[in-house]
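Good morning,

Attaching, inline, the backbone tokens for the sequence recovery test we're adding to the shared suite. The designed sequence is right after.
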């Protein structure tokens, strides 16, 4: 590892492309044994690339000053991953609830004078799940369902599955890696690959290969509902005591305004709101499709708690995402035309309210002030795109290039808060076209046939709500929720007939809560 970390020059850029190639194999190769080999390569290459890039940076100063302690910490971490991998090897279905539990938790790590909020628990779970898969596949034992194994380790992907979502994901990640070569901020692009694309692609593969039985779906529903209630309770304590646990910027904003926004264990109130909105959409599917009283009462109670939490985040983008998700659910549960009419009425009422009292909505400060500076970021991103419409400035370059033409003292600037604009500025049409194609194909995959399946209807509505949220905030493929929804949704859409499960599930299979 020290030898790899000491290497410099073009190696990291070649390594990023190699990582993208390994992910393409993980996502697309039909033979499970070859996918496992590529998975093992990604597990080794990703941390090696990161260390090679930041070995001489202040971020690893503690490693240079205290090598023994760092080595002991690394050994302990590997032991934890190994122990968890052994557990998942025996009970493969555990990867689903463990990943859902780990999804929201970001650990603030201070190094070199900066603080990064990393999904450390999720990295541990994904690493353990990938390691268990590698051992199982390369060891000659294969998975046919939760807890069941077959002697053949070369099973193939369902040939009838239209795998265009995986193909477009592989194409986008490959282009991102290639366009990182000429980026003025290659380190940012590398970190995106190592911290987001590599682990999240492995997560999608793990979830995609699971057999999603009604029992596993019920368990996962209970997990996310329980987490959401717990996080909302933390937010209620924040609101009652007027104290926050994270995000100094939000703390400063709350101190100078009459309102008080909560963020619970999330670093950002908008990310907390996004999580609550998506969970509420899934629970709303239970309410719409379930006929029994007990699950309905359960859903209503949880929704009431989460609604209060969502309002206290003051996240307008999350409220909009919730409306979009509920509209999609309503259109699939009933008919599209009445839902569109109701949506139009809601929009008209909103416009009238804004016109009648623009000060209430902050419009007296101008569009940029009302959007907390996001309008300026969007216009700046469009200006960058106009300068280089074909190939952009390179992956991860938005902040660097924006600061050149728009001097700002902000220390939190990282994107335009509108994902299509960020991609257009960084990657031009070369990246924008695959992104748009991915959104369209993924939406078509998840929505097609979902009207007759409440499980898939919930996933489709949540995904479309997330896409809407990324138009007003940030983080699309940088959010593990995107890959999780795509992994589960693809698995449900293309369930193998060999599983013995019907493709259309009853509503109680989604909603029934274990006693």
């Amino acid at each position: 590892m020290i030898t790899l970390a000491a290497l410099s020059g073009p190696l990291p850029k070649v390594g990023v492309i190699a990582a993208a190639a390994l992910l393409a194999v993980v996502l697309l190769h039909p033979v499970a044994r070859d996918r496992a080999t590529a998975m093992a390569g990604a597990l080794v290459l990703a941390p090696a690339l990161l260390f090679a890039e930041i070995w001489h940076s202040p971020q690893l100063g503690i490693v240079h000053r205290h090598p023994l302690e760092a080595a002991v910490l690394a050994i302990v971490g590997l032991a934890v991953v190994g122990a968890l991998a052994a557990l998942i090897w025996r009970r493969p279905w555990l990867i689903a609830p463990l990943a859902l539990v780990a999804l929201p938790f970001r650990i603030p790590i201070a190094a070199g004078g900066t603080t990064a909020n990393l999904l450390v628990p999720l990295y541990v779970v994904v690493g353990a799940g990938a390691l268990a898969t590698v051992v199982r596949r390369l060891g000659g034992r294969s998975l046919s369902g939760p807890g069941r194994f077959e002697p053949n380790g070369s099973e193939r992907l369902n040939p009838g599955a239209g795998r265009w979502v995986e193909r477009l994901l592989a194409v986008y990640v490959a282009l991102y890696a290639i366009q990182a070569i000429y980026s003025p901020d290659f380190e940012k692009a590398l970190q995106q690959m190592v911290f987001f694309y590599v682990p999240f692609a492995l997560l999608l593969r793990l979830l995609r290969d699971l057999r999603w039985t009604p029992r596993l779906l019920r368990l996962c529903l209970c997990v996310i509902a329980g987490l959401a209630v717990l996080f909302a309770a933390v937010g209620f304590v924040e609101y009652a005591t007027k104290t926050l646990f994270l995000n100094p910027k939000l703390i400063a904003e709350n101190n100078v305004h009459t309102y008080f926004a909560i963020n619970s264990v999330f670093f950002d109130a908008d990310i907390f709101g996004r999580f609550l909105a998506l969970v509420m959409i899934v629970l709303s599917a239970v309410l719409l499709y379930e006929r029994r009283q007990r699950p309905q009462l359960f859903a209503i109670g949880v929704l009431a708690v989460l609604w209060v939490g969502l309002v206290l985040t003051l996240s307008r983008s999350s409220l909009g995402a919730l409306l979009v998700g509920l509209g999609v659910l309503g259109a699939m549960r009933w008919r599209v035309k009445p839902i569109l009419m109701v949506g139009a009425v809601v929009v008209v009422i909103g416009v009238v309210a804004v016109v009648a009292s623009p000060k209430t909505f902050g419009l007296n400060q101008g569009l940029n002030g009302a959007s907390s500076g996001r309008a300026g970021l969007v216009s700046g991103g469009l200006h960058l795109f106009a300068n280089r419409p074909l190939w952009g400035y390179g992956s991860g370059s938005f902040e660097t290039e924006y600061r050149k033409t728009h001097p700002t003292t902000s220390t939190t600037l990282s994107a335009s808060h509108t994902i299509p604009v960020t991609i257009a500025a960084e990657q031009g049409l070369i990246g924008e076209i695959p992104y748009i194609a991915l959104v369209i194909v993924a939406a078509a995959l998840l929505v097609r046939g979902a009207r007759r399946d409440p499980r898939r209807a919930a996933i489709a509505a949540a995904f479309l709500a997330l896409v809407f949220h990324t138009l007003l905030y940030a983080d699309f493929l940088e959010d593990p929720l995107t890959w999780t929804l795509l992994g589960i949704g693809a698995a449900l859409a293309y369930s193998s007939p060999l599983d013995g499960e019907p493709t259309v599930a009853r509503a109680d299979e989604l909603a029934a809560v274990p006693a």
